[in-house]
Amino acid sequence: MGAIPPAEQGRPGARCRPRARRRGARRPAVTLAALLLLAAALAWGRTRPGPAVEPHVRAIFPAARTVAPRAGVWHAWNADGVTLGWAAPGRAGGYGGPLALVVGVDTLGRIAGARVVEQRETPTFWRLARIPERLEGLAGASLEEVGRGDRGLAAVSGATLSTRAVERSVRDAVTLVAGEQFDLRLPAPPRPFEFGLLEVTVLALFAAGLAAGRLRAPARRRLRWAAQLTGLVVLGFWKDSPITLAKLAGLFSGFLPDVRTGLAVWLLLAGFLVTSALRDRNLYCLYACPFGAAQRVVGLVGIRRVRVPPSAARLLEATRDIIVLGLLLAALVTLQPALAVYEPFAPLFSLRGETFQWVLLSVVLVASLAIPAPWCAFLCPMRTIERGIGDLRRAVRQRAVRRRAVRRRRRRGGVPAAAGGSLAATAPAPHRDAGRPPPRRPGETPC
Amino acid sequence: MQIFASGGFWFLEGILFVVVVLAFRAWMHDRGVPLPAWKWAVFLLWLGFAAFTIAFVGTSFGEGEPTAATRGGLLFGTAAVIGGAAAWRLLMRGREPGGRHTAG
CB of A304 within 8 Å of any CB in chain B? Predict the structure, then answer.
């Protein structure tokens, strides 16, 4: 493999074709190795012990001499052995990963205090949600009041996932103490299935992507513009809910929001992953991504197109792949999906974010004037995921083609049974995907 | 930083703006680009926005708000660059193919 046949020598492209083929053959193995690495990171992250609860229980009951857990509920006693109260932990998935807190209840059935044990929200969301201040406001509330949700823990717009996680954690903790110590069954809060304009829009955008495949080029272009502008307005500026690497890391580590309240996130991720597995280009990037649409709109006023040299494009793509793998590993080892946030979406769609995101946003938007969709081509983590899935799909398909060829030859009697077991000894039947390099050259715009 | 509060600073700034506007007019004239009123409006709007961006960054730093200066500068600066590209396309409409390169 890799040797240039004499007949091919001297012909244009004779040197690069085998190299491209070698690279293409190596990529599924690299993807598989990366997947194994990620699985190991997740296993390691899952087995690491969580933070200690005891110091927080002691902080809630400062007069306690002894605290100890019994049947999931912490008991606090003073020096005379008198019970001061009970505390229970609560845990739910926030935006950046698990959010755990402990809620203390005194012997009169009133909240003695609540403290955050563990949180992995991004600093921006944490500041916006003002969780510590709102937990302080719970002090003195009765169990029934908390159970009914009367004590100001409603979701904060812009930090919905974080505040809902806190609300759920508090309710779980209080329900546990109420059931164990007061023999009180708090009514389960109503959790309606949220299906609104956002979910409808997501479904419509994917449907548009599917329908576009049956249209002629001009109509397809118009439909794509309409879908992308809708995505820009609804998924971008209105709801600020594009797919991010943090959401994917949350999916892999099991910290996605409840499907009842966060159905749109599930639909987007499912649409992205399924269409990545079935097609060369996934439908999310082509028809729904609001940031891709923003770059396209900026590109409309571009003055001169600049072509990125293939070597530079390859370097950028390799750098991106390494960064994405590193961030995913860090997010899974620490079980902190928010660590994987590096996209400049938040500054554009909600004017929030860290300074490096603002810088990245400026660079990408200005570059969009000269390079078509530079973020999608060189920096977007979804491209890495999509290519990884595509490599695996192509490898599986090639393998199936080879197996079919072997079976066909055996049936025709072309390959003796003794020699027919080896796939390498059999020339693969030609297939549109067999030996095909990846569908897009580096530097080519995906849009 | 008393210079920014002095009348001399604003006098110099006024001169600078007049020079920029005159240079723009001469430059467009040399390239044979017609300058109707709406093009003047587009140019002045863009110039005002660019000046606002610089002023925002300067005053934010001056008031000890480096974060606001950085983020505002990036946001408005990016908008100014993109707006500049859009304005350029508008301003170059109706350009005569040869132009009159008669500078000097």
Answer: no
Are residues A170 and A90 in contact, defined by beta-carbon separation less than 8 angstroms?
yes
Which chain B residues are closer than 8 Å to A304 by Cβ?
none
Q: What is the pLDDT of residues A104-142, one digit of tens each?
A: 999 998 999 999 888 877 777 777 777 888 888 888 888
Of the candidates A327, A321, A401, the residue with the CA atom closest to the CA atom of residue A27: A321
User: How far does CA A259 lie from the centroid of its chain?
Assistant: 15
Q: Which residues pair with A142 in a beta bridge?
A: A110
What does the alpha-carbon distance between residue A318 and residue B32 come to, in Å, rounded to a whole number?
Answer: 47
pLDDT at B77 over 90: yes
| Residue appearing with tokens 């403290």 | A115
Query: Does pTM top 0.90 for this prediction?
Result: no
Q: Give chain B positions within 8 Å (CB) of A358.
A: 70-71, 74-75
Reported as a pLDDT band with limits 50, 70 and 90, residue A3 is: very low
What is the distance between the alpha carbons of residues A381 and A426, in angstroms, rounded to a whole number?
38
* Cβ within 8 Å of residue A402, ≥6 positions away: A423, A426, A428, A429, A434
In chain A, % of residues over pLDDT 90: 41
Q: Which of A303, A351, A366 sits opposite B78 (nearest CB)?
A: A366
Integer angstrom CA distances of residue A270 from A240, A247, A274, A284, A331: 18, 12, 6, 10, 20
B97's tokens: 């193919």
Can you read off the two tokens belonging to residue A430?
């030609």
Distances (CA, A) of A425 to A1, A45, A419, A421, B23: 13, 44, 8, 8, 75
pLDDT band, very low/low/confident/very high, at A233 (cuts 50, 70, 90)? very high
Q: Which of A301, A351, A357 to mutate to test the interface with B (most CBs of B within 10 A)?
A: A301
Chain A positions touching B86 (Cβ under 8 A) are 301
Point out the least confidently predicted range of A254-263, B17-26, B37-46, B75-84.
A254-263
CA–CA gap between residue A122 and residue B28 (Å, rounded): 49
Q: Are A95 and A339 in contact (CB under 8 A)?
A: no
Distances (CA, A) of A147 to A190, A282, A410, A441: 11, 43, 70, 57
Residues composing chain A: 447
Q: Give me the interface pTM, i.e. the ipTM.
A: 0.84
Residues A6, A7, A10, A11: what is their CA dihedral angle, to the nearest 10 degrees?
A: -150
SS3 A98: strand
